[in-house]
Design goal:
elongated, 3-stranded antiparallel sheet, single chain, 20% strand, 2 domains, 348 residues, BirA Bifunctional Protein, domain 2
């Protein structure tokens, strides 16, 4: 029996000699080691042997299985290595060739600008909060000191959804109201509320029925107009440069008292007069003011203890000024040719 097994192992060596194809090798392996292979069928003869002979036969059978498996595995590894080297040689890449230019996307100008302001405000201790775009009248108007029948509502040209109670928010100020209610008049608030707002308007180069607002609210003790001035100054210097000068002009908003318009010195002409600043040397960029006592009271804060300021920027207006864009519709059109007017290094 040993001679028969040695002969089988010699046959295996002879059969695989000169084999260069993995498929052929696998076929030979199945002939000897498969379920009905020559070596496998030898095991069926063990039942006719006595105990001692069976032990000896089993050891010899394992040896031949191990020897044949090693022969097949060694040759398989050799053929696979040769095939891989051949493939690498045929498919090698010349890294000295110029690369294919791939067009890369970039964040939208509005997204980039808003993220810049968010990062700045977070570094100053503010939270970024959001709220529903489909809003209730009481949050959008009434709790901001604009009761029903107030003429200021007409100027908003609101999109009403259900009667006069459900609407598309005309400002992100309702988020500030909801934040005050969550504070329950017990803790300071520092939040910034960027988001979409909606007003009935005819779309043209400077108007849109949908636009982005970036509003901020701070409620604490002993807050003054100088705190607001300092905060606004930091923001506009971040956007337009360290040489920008800020000024406040008296204005009127229902939810702040006193209220101000925020102007910045013209970054284009250095206040000498140009088309951007309409030859005044100043550009209006925001509205702001000290939070009205009625708004604090309706938000759950005692105006005798707490005070605060609020401000609001139009994201599109800031972006149009910063990137010299003269048509607000560029932000919402799908024509990619419009993006070539933006400097890529500012968009990465």
């Amino acid at each position: 029996m040993d001679e028969k097994m040695k002969k089988i192992l010699s046959e295996v060596k002879e059969k695989i000699k000169g084999v260069k194809d993995l498929n052929v090798l696998n076929e030979i392996k199945a002939t000897y080691l498969g379920k009905k292979g020559v070596i496998t069928e030898l095991a069926s003869q063990m039942k006719d042997l006595d105990v001692d002979a069976r032990k000896e036969f089993g050891k010899a059978l394992n040896d031949i299985k191990t020897g044949a498996s090693e022969l097949f595995d060694n040759l398989k590894n050799k053929l696979e290595t040769e095939a891989l080297n051949k493939k690498l040689e045929n498919e090698k890449i010349d890294i000295s060739l110029p690369a294919t230019k791939i067009e890369c996307g970039a964040p939208s100008i509005l997204e980039k600008l808003i993220e810049e302001i968010e990062e700045l405000m977070i570094s100053m201790g503010y939270d970024v909060v959001d709220g529903p775009e489909l809003e209730e009248d009481k949050y959008n108007f009434e709790m901001l000191n604009i009761p029903k029948g107030h003429p200021a509502r007409d100027a908003q040209d609101t999109f009403y959804i259900e009667g006069e109670e459900i609407l598309l928010r005309s400002q992100t100020s309702p988020v500030q109201v909801r934040t005050m209610l969550e504070g329950k008049g017990e803790k300071p608030i520092r939040v910034i509320c960027p988001g979409k707002t909606y007003r009935r308007d005819d779309d043209d180069a400077t108007h849109s029925h949908q636009f982005m607002q970036i509003e901020g609210l701070l409620v604490d003790k002993d807050i003054s107009l100088s705190d607001l001035k300092g905060t606004i100054d930091v923001i506009v210097k971040k956007i337009f440069g360290e040489n920008i000068v800020t000024r406040f002009r008296p204005s009127y908003y229902q939810f702040t008292e006193p209220s101000v318009e925020v102007d910045i010195s013209c970054f284009n002409c250095k206040q000498e007069g140009c088309n951007i600043c309409k030859h005044t040397g100043w550009i209006t960029v925001a509205g702001a003011g000290i939070v009205h006592p009625n708004v604090l009271r309706m938000g759950g804060y005692d105006p005798k203890v707490w005070s605060g300021f609020a401000f609001g920027f139009g994201a599109e207006r800031l972006a149009m000024l910063k990137y010299n864009i003269n048509d607000v519709r560029v932000f919402y059109n799908n024509d990619l040719r419009g993006t070539h007017s933006f400097d890529r290094k500012d968009s990465e």
